[in-house]
Design brief:
Blueprint lengths: L23 E7 L5 H11 L7 H11 L14 H6 L6 E6 L4 E6 L7 H8 L4 E7 L6 H12 L4 E7 L8 H17 L6 E4 L23 H7 L13 E8 L8 E6 L4 E3 L3 E5 L3 E9 L8 E3 L3 E6 L10 E4 L6 E12 L5 E2 L4 E5 L2 E15 L5 E3 L3 E2 L3 E15 L10 E6 L2 E12 L4 H13 L7 H8 L4 E6 L6 H14 L4 E5 H5 L13 H17 L3 E5 L5 H10 L5 E6 L11 E3 L4 H14 L8
């Protein structure tokens, strides 16, 4: 019998695990009221693993409130959860058997909280899926099975619960095995076991049941111990999404620590690291840890920080990799498999937030290739929207490039969620990266950054010296608007204020470094690339660069963002009507130049590029 200690909420209890055995994360899923929480509660109670007096305390609370006792109440700790009788958020249960320690995530089955189930499942190596013997296979049973497949969870045991309500009938159990087993086979999952149980009575949870003498398979506890624990993916290419870059200034400490959690692989002191999507490179100088001895290596699964030998400017959202290993994919167009949970359908042209690793980018649906009903596996092509609970294959267009991997290569750096109106509305995995207009430019920029010789003067020191942040101010508008007047007046105003600023008209580029290429539509991308390269040099010097050009488009901006740090760019439209698809940061209505300059200056102060006087 397993010895188990539990915690319904953090912090994790300290349990002595078998030496050298890794903890396994299990998610338990199922349709609402099929008895997931009861199964876990009964498991804990029957193995005498609850904290002393916990069971009696819950029984007393139920009696005090004139409510029948339910083992699910051991997990449904929140008052409003007990009031509704459903699990709203994932409860974490820590325990160990003689084989290894476990973390079980009790994920919701109610349709309103399906996204919480996805959050729980994404952290799990294996799953228990509960089906009510009396109600049989439900739509959510199929959806949850498909979600497990989409998230790459292949280890699954199916618990056919409430067998007492069908008089322990083997024929009912066999029917569910046939029906649901056939469905799982379609989505590529072969469950390790179908187990007939009664959570209420404890039958086949931790101990075998005399009511189910016809069943010869494992109990739930035995099925858990039969799952294979996946080792940390240290043998895969190194991937560490950058969470943040910390700088210390006190007592002469000038370290810049790149921090994040290693998703796969191993990093060592002296390794050459490359960050994507920027392509900037450096070498690991030291591996840092809080309150721990200095280490010379760090492996997958650990949150770490490291310093760099050659200082480079990188930001949250980049992915650290090792030079000799396969590089991640970098693009603005992704073919994905995604599930949608929002009440409103996912539609084209609407902006969503895509979160992958630590990257946050604006995304739009470019094309819906096909939509599948996750409960029936039926498909429909050429749909204009993705409805709630649909699973779709689609092409997403991002507003800037990100680094990721394909699901078949490294699952953890292929998973993403979609946020709309500050709520998670969907998620999925990257199936393929597609070429975009900036592919050729990006390849050149990656080579440039790889060969780049960084200055010994850091951007922060320039910003402190100049009392400003580097910025590219793109002032555009229709051909009739006097953009140059605003730009030159802005340059003069900022110069008088003591800023390091420079104005460049597009003509200076077209008839200077672009003199060797004709002004044809097919050469526009190269014109934008060269403009961006000029800007990148001046921005690296810490300057504020003001550039004017007529009717810049979103495509033009995306080319420029490929070569220039996107958060260094401000787009300004001069004129009453925006005549292109450019997403602007500021629009200047037609009017007097001094007022326009004051408006731009105030915008730059709001963005922290220049500072407001005290």
């Amino acid at each position: 019998m397993g010895q188990i200690s539990t915690s319904i909420a953090p912090p994790e209890p300290r349990v002595s695990a078998p030496v050298g055995v890794q903890r396994m994360n299990i998610v338990i899923v199922g349709h609402v009221d099929h008895g997931k929480s009861t199964v876990i509660g009964r498991l804990l109670a029957d193995t005498h693993s609850l904290p002393e007096g916990k069971l009696e305390q819950v029984r007393a609370q139920c009696e005090l409130n004139s409510r029948p006792f339910e083992y699910a109440f051991l997990l449904d700790a929140l008052k409003d959860e007990q009031a509704q009788g459903i699990t709203i958020d994932a409860a974490r249960v820590f325990f160990k058997t003689e084989s290894r320690p476990y973390l079980i995530l009790d994920a919701p089955g109610h349709i309103e909280f399906l996204k919480n189930m996805i959050t729980g499942a994404a952290r799990a190596e294996a799953a228990l899926l509960v089906i009510d013997a009396a109600e049989g296979v439900q739509e959510n049973s199929r959806r949850h099975g498909y979600m497990m497949s989409l998230l790459g969870i292949r280890q699954l045991a199916v618990l056919v619960n409430k067998m007492d309500l069908v008089s322990w009938d083997q024929a009912v159990f066999d029917g569910i095995v046939r029906e649901y087993g056939a469905f799982l086979d379609q989505v590529g999952i072969r469950p390790s076991a179908f187990i007939p149980v009664s959570g209420r009575g404890g039958d086949n949870i931790a101990d075998r049941s005399q009511h189910l003498a016809w069943y010869r398979g494992p109990t739930v506890l035995e099925a858990l111990d039969a799952f294979r624990s996946e080792p940390a993916p240290t043998d895969r290419p190194f991937r560490m999404p950058v969470q943040d870059v910390y700088k210390f200034t006190k007592q002469g400490d000038d370290r810049r620590i790149v921090a994040g959690t290693i998703e796969s692989g191993t990093v060592r002191v002296g390794d050459h690291v490359i960050f994507y999507p920027s392509g900037k490179k450096s070498r690991v100088k030291s591996i840092e840890a809080f309150n721990r001895p200095a280490a010379t290596r760090a492996d997958a699964g650990h949150a770490v920080g490291f310093t760099l030998q050659e200082q480079i400017y990188i930001t949250r959202g980049e992915v650290a990799t090792l030079e000799p290993e396969p590089r991640p994919q970098v693009t603005t167009r992704l073919r994905v498999s995604l599930f949608w949970l929002g009440k409103q359908p996912m539609v084209k042209r609407k902006e969503y937030m895509l979160k992958l690793g630590t990257a946050r980018v604006t995304a739009r649906v470019e094309e819906i290739l096909r939509v599948m009903d996750a409960s029936t596996l039926g498909t429909t092509e050429q749909r204009s929207a993705i409805q709630r609970h649909d699973v779709a294959e689609a092409v997403l267009k991002l507003d800037r490039a990100i680094a990721c991997d394909l699901a078949e290569d490294i699952a953890s750096t292929s998973r993403f969620v979609i946020v709309d109106d500050f709520e998670i509305r969907g998620g999925g995995i990257v199936r393929e990266t597609l070429p975009d207009r900036q592919t050729s430019v990006r390849d050149q920029v990656l080579l440039r950054n790889y060969k780049w010789e960084p200055s010994t003067v850091q951007p922060e020191r320039r910003a402190e010296k100049y009392n400003q942040k580097a910025a590219l101010i793109l002032i555009t508008g229709d051909s009739e608007t006097d953009r140059k007047a605003v730009a030159k007046a802005l340059e003069g105003k900022l110069f008088e204020d003591g800023k390091v600023v420079y104005f460049v008209g597009i003509g200076s580029v077209l008839y200077g470094i672009d003199a060797d290429i004709e002004r044809k539509p097919e050469n526009r991308l190269e014109h934008m690339r060269r403009l961006a390269e000029v800007a990148n040099l001046m921005l690296d010097a810490g300057m504020i660069l003001i550039v004017t050009a007529a009717e810049l488009t979103q495509d033009d901006l995306e080319v420029i963002k490929t070569a220039v740090q996107p958060d260094w760019i401000e787009t300004i439209w001069a004129g009453d009507d925006i005549t292109t698809d450019l997403a602007v940061d500021l629009q200047l209505p037609t009017g007097a130049v001094p007022e326009a300059v004051d408006q731009v200056k105030s915008h730059l102060q709001d963005k922290g590029i220049i500072f407001r006087p005290w």
